[in-house]
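Late entry, written up from scratch paper. The run itself happened at the end of the previous shift, but nothing got recorded in the book at the time, so transcribing now.
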Amino acid sequence: MTWLWKGACIGILLAQVDPRANDLVRRSRKKLKSMEYMTVQFTYVVENRADTTQKRISRTGTLRYHPKKNRFAVDLGDIAILSDGKTVWQFLKKEKEVNVSTYDPKEGFSLERVFRIYDQDMKVRHDRTETYKGRTVHKVSLFPISDTTDYFRVEVWIDAQTELPQRMRISHRDGTVVEYELKSYDTQPIPDSAFVFDVKQHPGVQIIDLR
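Output as recorded:
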């Protein structure tokens, strides 16, 4: 009976492996890593499905990203977040205020964090192939191996031709769901100055150092 039980367990584990999904995600991650620079136009929606009293938030922005040096700049219109990999500047444009803090990859909003989550080792499953905004995409779901993460599922729509994510949805354990739509990818070089807040270009700005 013992060997039957072990065999059944092995069979269940093998059944959970999805070679097609693994291959799709592996190639997509490789394509993203091949980009030295990346500029992405995006929209994101945040809603808490466990607490319907909270308002649904929708924003549009631009991400400029230098993955190898861990540098990014997010522009959300009235707010800009920049980081050179060591320091983070959060610029509140209307208030003319910039908060300076030490970079922590676990904190703060940034599409850069989403790309890092996508790059982590997770169980994957191919859900379906469908048409999204006139493009053929593969819908895959990723599940973290550890139950200590603040999210329990990441859904990704991978463009069949470019192998790049066109849409991503992250479901958090507290009921919050964050969804991104990635409208374009530009791989033109980005100057280092784009990832540092230049006080000289913003006369009269108030600096609040939180380090």
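Confidence is low (pLDDT under 50) at residues 1-15.
(Scratch paper discarded after transcription.)
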